[in-house]
Records
---
Amino acid sequence: MRNTATCRSAIILGCTGSIGITAIKGLSALSSPLRIRALSAHTQAQKLIDSAVSLGAEAVCLTGARFSDFPVHCPADVRRYDGPHGLRSMLEDIHADVVLNGIAGADGLAASRWTLENGMDLALANKETIVMAGSLIENTARRNSCSIFPVDSEHSALKALIDAHGRERVSSLVITASGGPFRTIPMEKLYDITPEQATAHPTWSMGRKISVDSATLANKGLELIEAARLFSFDSSCLEIVIHPQSIVHSMIRMVDGAVYAQLSPPDMSLPILSALAGGVLPGQGVKALDFTHISLEFEKADEKRFPFLALARSCIKGNDALPIVFNAANEVAVHAFLARTCRFPDIYATVEEALARGNWSQYIEDYEDVMQVDASARRIAQDILSEKHV
């Protein structure tokens, strides 16, 4: 890992999303300065330019559009890049100690790959990177002597706990889930859920897609897969427990029976800034907990209500193609739900059928294989949804 005692530099991808916004707001908490060299956004050109000017970034990339499509003024000393190819060029041209990948969905995989291929550490908020191509990404990191710092609050906590106590002493990992907004709703009412209800998360402020994933617990399914690959644990050694307060982010069970937990407010500042700082946060990350004003509850995750959990476990036990299908079909189904062309329970049904319908026995040898499976899964998911409306 690189020397973190000197001034570190960073690139923030997805700077107008919830991860990017939290990162930028939290920079003042770092006692050691962090130089922001470049930023990207999908389509919010003006916000991207404004952030670049305020942070002194030397380059920007608009990944989902072209700057010429918007009436914005960009200072002459800020280099501009457009589209996915532009993002790759920016990561080749601009070097930083660490890249925060806050790009949402499968689109973030390429950015993670390019980051590591260009010799930069990866602060990874894009869980799809590990779900879709865990072994490939880890090999790319090793070849280029780079580190990967997980940014999900659960995996950031797990890494800190495992590093502190030693992998050989840990028997299992416990990942918490808030349970989302429908933890107690009668099962028969799930068909009546609207996109507005599904995106109103009770404890976290997130984007629409990930909010729906948190309501179905597909998000926790993805996190199970990510944890299995990041920390090399079998699915039988991974637990999900419902914890509505979102204060305990993860726990580890030790071989001697002891349990250690990481607690902090439901705020992404701590894992984001820790990852940007190289794993150890120099400064105040979040406000300290006041235990006289909090109550912690835990309950078993109901896999009948949240079937994505069992489905994710089956993907972990299967071959490397299955998690790719899980993620791709879920993205297609969630977008259909948000567009009001399928019902809430249809999200799971679509993913389950996509996994059962396709021939997913192929061996994943390279990134091209990953994208081929991803494209096939998306076509099958679209066909499934279309058939439901014939």
---
Amino acid sequence: MKYRRLTKEQLEEMHQEFINFLAAQTITVDEWNDIKKNKPQVAEDEIDVFSDLVWEGVLSKVTYLENISATEMHLFHLGEKEMRLIAVRVHQPGVNLTTKEGFAWFKNNFLTDAVEMMVAAKAYTEDRNKDKFELIEKGAVITKGELFTYFDEILPN
């Protein structure tokens, strides 16, 4: 498996897509039920293949990721040839970027000495989607990139 198996909830949400996936392999409902009952490892393998296909499709479309913790933000723009990062670290005791109050403080104080910002770029390895997946596995979430775009416009390159 290249990525990881979709969760039970994700698989349930993609029920129709999974049926289409099986149909594309000419596996009927009766055959699938038989596989699950009599060849559970084959069923597991099919779910793994489907999961990888879903991840490939999602990852190929991802352009922005964010990983925000109490004191740090990692904002990623995932371009064609490289990923760009805007990293933020808050040095103000008691400020938590994951709360409404903490983020409000940050919006008013991000140009002060209490906030450190860094911009970096990195080329992908030979597998761009795997690089994106690793960021997601470390806690990044897919976004529309509003935060990245905002800071990218005001920070010097």
---
Amino acid sequence: MELIQRNPDLTAYLAACEAVDHEHPRVRETVTHLSERYRDAYTYAEAAYVFVRDAIPHSQDSGDLRVTWRASDVLEWRTGICYAKSIAYAALLRARGIPAALCYQRLAEDDGSRPAIHGLVALRLPGARGWARQDVRGNKPGVDAQFSLDRERLAWTVRPEFNEVDYPVLYTEPHPAVLRALKAAPDRPHLWQTLPSEL
């Protein structure tokens, strides 16, 4: 699949915004901590990936009722669903000068019911041929996402027979439907009932 930059200006994928608040002290503190051990862009990008995937539990898996949507809150509270964790990873990348985009899949249950949007990150490392999608959702039995630049190792591969979709567009900010759902949810169970089903 060919990924499409919604904004042709690559520097737009380095910018801070309300959700990807990479200038926040909590984000900067995390970047400094990771950068002490991982100095080049490649090892840093992988270390930041592993940190967000493994050290920040997916709130559905952990049972955490809180809803986070700013990168700084995800890092502070150590919780979030796929959207929030993707926002946090994008912030950690952008803070180190690595272009990062938010992108999405539409996934469904095994019978094709209950479609919902799933959040990913695409990054572009120096000298790379293009963007590489990553999934920081968090692993569990049956889910084994890994950092990979040459072959995607996402949590799920879309199944067209169930009307699942890989959306090719790379966004500089969270998609408005995603951000609306996150901001409006008083808790994670409510959010689970109001996840967008398409973009």
---
Amino acid sequence: MYTEEKKVTQLATLDSFAYSAIEKHFKKSIKHESDVLDDKDPELLHQMRVGLRRLRTAVDVFDFAVDLPKPISDRTISKIAHSLGAVRDLDVLTAELNSQQQSSLPIAEQNRLETLLKKMNKQRKRDFAHLQQTLKGSDYDALKDALKGWLKKPHYQSIAQLPIQEVLPDLLLPLISETLLHPAWLVNANFENGAAIVHSIHPEMLDDFIKQHGPTLHDLRKQMKRVRYQTELFVDFYDSAYAEQIEDFKAIQEVLGQIQDRAVLQGYLGSQIKESVQDVYPTLSKQLDQKVADALRTWQTLQQRYLDPEFRKKLRSLI
């Protein structure tokens, strides 16, 4: 049974819904700005980055219905989010290496990591200085001023008068189709007699697998992030099965993120030394391999499900 608030949402037109989405994520984007500039908490920086990503999604989704000033552009929002991301990525790497250093690593590997962490801290200071310049720069100020001005006096395209429910399938079905047609679903898989077969990955082939298929899996991760953020905009228009599906999108994004994190960490370690990572950090490498092997097993279970024709049909029908 719908609440009164949900009933109002169901009757919303495109213009009012677009306005609410853009306003909500703009406010979330700038909520922690001063704390981020003061570098008070890495989590607040992460929240600001997520807010900007969701703002970018809202602007992109409703681009056909709203008339936004030029400073409110995908390029500008991406540039600011990228500055936040450079610092955030180092924070994630540092946290992972700190946790590994505190585990059962040999003293020699711990000492090497200690030296590397100091180097990473210097890099973070440089990246954070660039972030401060970005958040104090003219592009960011112009973006904020343009959004504040538009929220005071919004402008729309003619199609924005349509009830939101009439256009939901047109907004979401292309997104679902793009996701289902992504080549990553067929990584290490093939069809036999019409049925999808996902082949297991031998532990000794992990490095080769990541090198060959990592970029494709990472691209699907980015697509799952888009599909998650866009479908979350419309969760109030669907039942609990839709909300559960969004959680499924999130699970795929996260497990692919774990695989990507391993690739990034392995690549970063390799860029800092002349020898192989396995030779310099043998124990750490084994621990990382175990983590990525666990993540790949989870991924392949999800992969098998998304290759099932009945599941794909059900997903389309859900929209």
